[in-house]
Amino acid sequence: MRGESAWNIVWLAVTMILFYIFMTAYCTPYNALIPVLGRNQKDRMDISTYISLTYIVGTGIAFAGKMIWEAVQGMTGWDYYLCARLVLGVLAVIAFICMIIPAFVIREKDYDNSPPTKEHAFRSLGKTFQNRHFRIFVVSDVIYWVGITIFNTGFIFYVENLLELDNYMILFIFMTLVTFVCYPVVNILSRRFGKKRLLIVGFALFGFAFLVSAFAGKVTFIPNVVYGFIICVLVGVPLSILGVIPQAIVADIAESDCIVTGENRDAMFFAARTFAFKLGQSIAMIIFTSLAVVGQYTET
User: Fold this and answer.
1) CB burial class (10 A; 0-12, 13-18, 19+) of residue 268?
2) Which of 96, 134, 136, 221 is most buried by its number of CB atoms within 10 A?
3) CA dist., res. 126 & res. 172, Å (int)
4) pLDDT tens sequence across 49-69
5) CA dihedral 121, 126, 127, 128 (to 10 degrees)
6) Using CA atoms, how far apart are residues 35 and 41, in angstroms rounded to an integer?
7) In the predicted model, is pLDDT for residue 3 greater than 70?
8) Of 270, 271, 256, 251, which Cα lies nearest the Cα of 37?
9) What is the pTM of this model?
10) What is the percent of the chain where pLDDT is above 90?
């Protein structure tokens, strides 16, 4: 059913809920394999880098979906909505195939035979948060996801309203390329300077990028197009750092906790981390939409 309707709202709500449920069910054990497959910090850092590289490629393809189905419509002359559904269907099939490959190829028992914890889930979660280092990490991770979600949600607004440009997709692609190119550099620098120092640098750069974004359209001596590319570089660099380092840190904490307690709670650590970034995203959406509504009422 095209257009606005109660059924479409229900359909969207149900599909979004199912999406996040199944994403959690898949990503939690998937990420929990990082400390299992990574025998040392270098291996875990490499795995985290590869995951981030494939994530950014998949995200770029997803964001280019609209361009793809518009190109298909231009070549075929088919109905716009039909082209959109066909492209989304093909991308969904490709994503499904990519997602089931690890399940059938990786034999977890070949890498780790340690018995998982048999405690109740909430008791295990409580013990997970008893780890002081993990508690500090979770707090910083929630704050990070609040920031990045606000930026991603408002990216089109920054480009079209503040910079008065209509080529937001070009800027997004450029920012994605900057992030992609920086991933290997982050991997190398983490070995030289350590993950903690690099993570602090990433937070500082991201905060500076937000400050620069706040003045978008106000700096008259820099053309808006150039200013947009500057923002993309300032955001792309910390995105590469914060896209790689946190996963490796969680894997390190999980392995350390297993050594200290003798209990393997890798999945619980990553499940708690998944909850943290979802919490950060939810808070960010509430903040952004509230500010957007306040702005509309202020204008009127």
Assistant:
1) buried
2) 134
3) 40
4) 888 888 888 887 887 788 888
5) 90
6) 9
7) no
8) 251
9) 0.77
10) 13
CB atoms within 10 A of CB 223: 11
Q: Which of 160, 141, 131, 165 minimizes the C-alpha distance to 252?
A: 131
Write out pLDDT tens, residues 278-290: 888 888 888 887 7
pLDDT confidence bin for 204, thresholds 50/70/90: very high
Contact by Cβ (8 Å): 269, 222 = no
- Residue 21: both structure tokens together: 């449920």
Distance separating alpha carbons of residues 273 and 169, to the nearest angstrom: 30
Q: Is 2 within 8 Å of 81 (Cβ atoms)?
A: yes
d(CA 203, CA 250): 17
- Residue bearing tokens 């780790």: 112
Q: How far apart are CA 252 and CA 14, in angstroms?
A: 36
Average pLDDT value for residue range 96-107: 88
- Of 149, 172, 150, the closest CA to residue 160 belongs to 172
Residue 223 tokens read as: 């053309």
Q: Work out the mean pLDDT of the chain and round it to a whole number.
A: 84
DSSP string, 117-183: P-S-HHHHHHHHTT-HHHHHHHHHHHHHHHHHHHHHHHHHHIIIIIS--S-HHHHHHHHHHHHHHHH
Pair 155, 213: CB distance under 8 Å: no
Q: Does the pLDDT of residue 264 top 90, yes or no?
A: no
Map tokens 């280092």 to a residue. 133
